[in-house]
Design a protein that fits this description.
This protein has 31 helices and 27 strands. With about 850 residues, the chain is α+β, with helices and mostly antiparallel strands. The strands form four sheets. Strands 10, 11, 12, 15, 16, 17, 18, 19, 20 and 21 form a ten-stranded mixed β-sheet that branches. Strands 8-27-26-25-9-22-24-23 form an eight-stranded mixed β-sheet, with helices on both faces. Strands 1, 2, 3, 4, 5, 6 and 7 form a seven-stranded antiparallel β-sheet that branches. A hairpin with a 2-residue loop joins strand 10 and strand 11. The protein is elongated.
Length: about 850
């Protein structure tokens, strides 16, 4: 049913209702038929599902397989330890995401909508969830629209539909019949769920509820939008698969090489098969970085806490890093780039132009230039907005005129209102009769072209004179100049009411113009500049008019081509992609479907896209984007769809989040370099020992100790390393770039090979004479010491100052202390170690010195190659 095309007098008949409303019995029957007036949950999440999702990673699957293998081989201690690590990691992520979801639920519970409804011919206050089609509701300024309504009666009615349509100015509403199909923003006889009445009153019939409303339609689109994996999740998944293939390949090579040698020497038997299998399992344990999931989770959790202090609530841990990877930010205009608060910024009188400082609804600022207060007195008198306790409320345009009067020094009560000719869309004017002292005056505000038709005189510097045609044209030219800057222009006029003048909009005296706009947030231009420096493209997507969008874009630094939703509608996806490539950065008068198409086109080009917004109309795009960023004061639907919620509504917080995400990724990469360098050393040491027929230089328990303690503590310390000052001058990382690029892989293999060769030499020297335990102790101790050197080498590779992170040095001291504890306490028996003599420590020092010199030389060469 196209409700806006149905005559008002037939609406009640179609709904089988009346102006007295429904009976309680009929309302109950319809509630059973149509259901509760609320949106379905955007996702069927539950704490159990949230916890299970923490294990959805290929690297986790590998570790779970290691747990199973260890249990089958009766290495129960290893299995329990790895399982405990996985559980702790899952719990950290679970409680972080659970807390974010509960915070959003608390915000939602604070916004219960109560509505005045006619039931059994009486006006009662009900929870909006109880509304059904056919209910008759009464609304006035400040009320939230509880369902989709067809207006039956209206007086000076305006509604703020910015959350639904993206238009910054309130929409004028009436009860007239519209005889053709119209876009949502032009259906002037309809009110839509989730919007707000800013002026006037209305009696309206409920025509659609719940998921049948326009908001419900958008909510359904949101649930159908694909939820894409974050760049970090993709990289970790590819990395995990690569690790799995590597482990299988190593095990296969070991099985063939050692098994083949054993078969050629002694034939094949069950004991030999088990021995070869144990060696392969040892290599698998050595290859898998057990500490990696915990390091990633803790690094992201630290980032979450930092961002919360900077007014950003993260709903999903991986979303922190995604912003660090994004190369395109698609931003809504109203409420995100702008304040969603109309502000008079310029004024004009025949005596000259005036400028007003201050933005938004704050009653602070001043007027620069010589002026007569009359212009601002008219603006505040032709007005229904109010000021109470320093706060303004009402229609955004009228609030702007109240605030401009305050800035002009008119802070006392406005003159008493005696009569009014309300604004209507035909006249485009509003007039009031007011008393000033002993006399009465008519004050008029309206559209410049319409108001000038009724003006015969001009006020200039406190005196009046006839309005000549040249002056009339000058005023129209000035109004056009303001309009070209996307300013909304209000003209003001007056006349005394005495025996020669009646209360009609004729023979008026023109006094001046006030020009207003929804101004950009003060911090946005600098934030846009920083994103440009960081190699990030900013695209504005708004439901507002093209001229307004272009003007705001120029003010905040978003340049490029402008395209309207109507033009976009006619493009194929390939043509839209071409338009984006050609530099279209501003999209105006777009619908939610258009936003989805823009996001999808960018993602098809392998861009990592962040979408910011606050309205219901932004929700599908927020969910489709790689990371959705919702404004905290926006709608529930937008917050539910987002990964990140800006608690201070500031676009600049996005820039802080980008910096945080890039820094976190760098620290995660450092931790992975450390973990894999150690694991590579262990794998190569066991592989080379098996290849040359040597005994295993490291037992399973020693491998687990190195992976969890010696690797784990320093890797966690790296997660709080300070971020490079150059992190926002680097280009964004492409999704195609692996977790570890070629230079980093070369460093890992080289450091691992150096450690393995040096450790094997020490092992072979100490194990001579059947002192296998002594040899293993020497190899084990060297790996621990080499890990500490590798830690410092990796920080140097990332150009991190040596003394900037005390936790790194605490981790190094802790690992060395634990190593001495293992060697010189009864724990040596548990780990099957041998105390080292001074001579042994001397050999360790020589080997470590040679290793360190070669490692730092290699790091220097690779870093230069990376910079080149």
């Amino acid at each position: 049913m196209e409700w806006h095309r149905q005559p008002a007098d037939q609406i009640l008949e179609l709904l089988n209702s009346s102006l007295k409303g429904l009976s309680k019995e009929e309302a109950a029957r319809r509630a059973a038929q149509y259901g509760i007036n609320e949106l379905e949950a955007s996702s069927n999440w539950s704490p159990v599902r949230l916890f299970i999702n923490q294990f959805r990673s290929f690297i986790i699957y590998i570790l779970l397989f290691a747990v199973l293998l260890s249990a089958l081989l009766k290495e129960y201690a290893d299995a329990v330890i790895i399982l405990c690590i996985l559980l702790v990691n899952a719990l950290i992520g679970f409680f972080q995401e659970l807390g974010a979801r509960r915070s959003l639920d608390a915000l939602r519970r604070m916004q219960v909508v109560r509505t005045r409804v006619y039931r059994d011919a009486s006006l009662v206050l009900l929870d909006s969830r109880e509304l059904v089609p056919g209910d008759i509701v009464y609304l006035e300024a400040g009320d939230k629209v509880p369902a989709d309504l067809r207006i039956l009666q209206a007086a000076r009615l305006r509604s703020d539909e910015s959350a639904l349509t993206g238009e910054s100015l309130p929409a004028e509403k009436n009860s007239c019949t519209l005889d053709r199909e119209l876009p949502l923003a032009d259906r002037s006889n309809m009110l839509f769920s989730g919007t707000t009445i800013v002026n006037g009153t209305a009696t309206a019939a409920v025509v659609l509820t719940g998921m049948q409303t326009e908001i419900g339609h958008i909510s359904r689109m949101m649930s159908e939008a694909e939820e894409t994996a974050t760049p970090l999740q993709e990289r970790l998944d590819r990395f995990g698969k690569g690790m799995g293939y590597l482990v299988m390949a190593i095990c296969g090579v070991i099985f063939m090489v050692i098994g083949g040698k054993e078969y050629l020497a002694n034939g094949w038997n069950q004991d030999a098969l088990l021995s070869v299998f144990m060696i392969a399992v040892s290599l698998a344990v050595a290859a898998v970085p057990e500490g990696l999931p915990s390091v990633v989770t803790i690094a992201l959790s630290i980032g979450v806490k930092k961002l919360l202090k900077r007014k950003a609530l993260v709903r999903k841990l991986a979303a922190v890093e995604t912003l660090g990877s994004c190369d395109v930010i698609c931003s809504d205009k109203t409420g995100t780039l702008t304040r969603n608060e109309m502000t008079v910024v310029q004024a004009w009188t025949p005596a000259g132009e005036l400028r007003l400082s201050g933005t938004g609804y704050e009653l602070e600022g001043s007027v620069t230039g010589e002026f007569e207060p009359l212009l601002f007195d008219i603006g505040r008198s032709c007005n229904h907005a109010t000021v109470q306790d320093g706060k303004v409320s009402g229609d955004p345009t009228e609030i702007a005129l109240i605030v401009s009067a305050w800035k002009a020094g008119l802070r006392e009560a406005a003159p008493a209102l005696l009569d009014e000719i309300p604004f209507d869309s035909d006249r485009k004017m509003m007039s009031v009769r007011i008393r000033k002292g002993d006399s009465e005056w008519m004050y008029v505000k309206g559209a410049p072209d319409q108001l000038l038709l009724r003006c015969t005189r001009l006020r200039n510097g406190g005196s009046e004179q006839p309005l000549e045609s040249a002056q009339r044209q000058q005023i129209l030219d000035q109004a056009s100049a303001y309009s070209a800057q996307a300013l909304r222009v209000i003209a003001c006029a007056c006349k005394p009411l005495d025996e020669t003048h009646d209360f009609t909009e004729e023979e008026l005296t023109f006094t001046g113009l006030q020009a207003m706009i929804d101004p950009p947030r003060e911090e946005v231009p600098e934030a846009v500049r920083k994103t440009r420096e960081a190699g990030i493209r900013v695209i504005m997507i708004t439901g507002d008019h093209a001229d307004t969008a272009r003007a705001v874009g120029a003010q905040v630094g978003i340049t490029g081509g402008v395209m309207t939703g109507a033009a976009l509608q006619d493009l194929s996806q390939e043509e839209l992609t071409a338009a984006l490539d050609q530099g279209v950065n501003i999209f105006a008068r777009v619908s939610p479907e258009h936003k989805l198409r823009i996001i999808s086109a960018l993602q098809a080009q392998h861009h990592t896209v962040a979408m910011t917004g606050d309205g219901v109309n932004d929700a599908p795009a927020l969910k489709q984007a790689d990371i959705g960023v919702a404004v905290g004061s926006g709608t529930d639907v937008a917050r539910d769809a987002a990964d990140l919620v800006l608690l201070d509504d500031s676009f600049a917080t996005i820039v802080n989040s980008v910096e945080e995400g890039r820094g976190i990724y760098n620290n995660i990469q450092k931790s992975i370099l450390l973990l894999l360098s150690g694991n590579m050393a262990e794998v190569l040491m066991i592989f080379l020992a098996a290849l040359f027929g040597l005994p295993l230089p490291l037992t399973a328990i020693l491998l687990l100790w190195v992976n969890l303690v010696t690797d784990g503590a320093p890797a966690l310390a790296l997660s709080v390393d300070p971020y490079s000052k150059r992190v926002m001058q680097q280009p964004p990382r492409s999704r195609k770039i692996p977790l570890l690029p070629r230079t980093e892989l070369t460093l890992i293999v080289a450091l691992g090979l150096l450690t393995a060769v040096a450790g094997l030499i020490l092992f072979q020297q100490a194990a001579a004479g059947n002192l296998l335990v002594h040899g293993r102790t020497m190899a084990f101790t060297f790996i621990v010491l080499a890990e500490m050197v590798i830690l410092l080498v990796i920080r140097a590779f990332h150009r991190t100052p040596v003394w900037t992170n005390r936790w790194v040095w605490i981790a190094i001291a802790g690992c060395l202390g634990l190593q001495l504890l293992l060697l010189y306490t009864p724990l040596q028996t548990v780990f099957e170690l041998h105390p080292l003599s001074l001579y042994d420590w001397g050999l360790q020092g020589l080997a470590l010195t040679a290793f360190g010199l070669i490692a730092w030389g290699l790091e220097w060469l690779l870093r230069r190659q990376k910079l080149d």
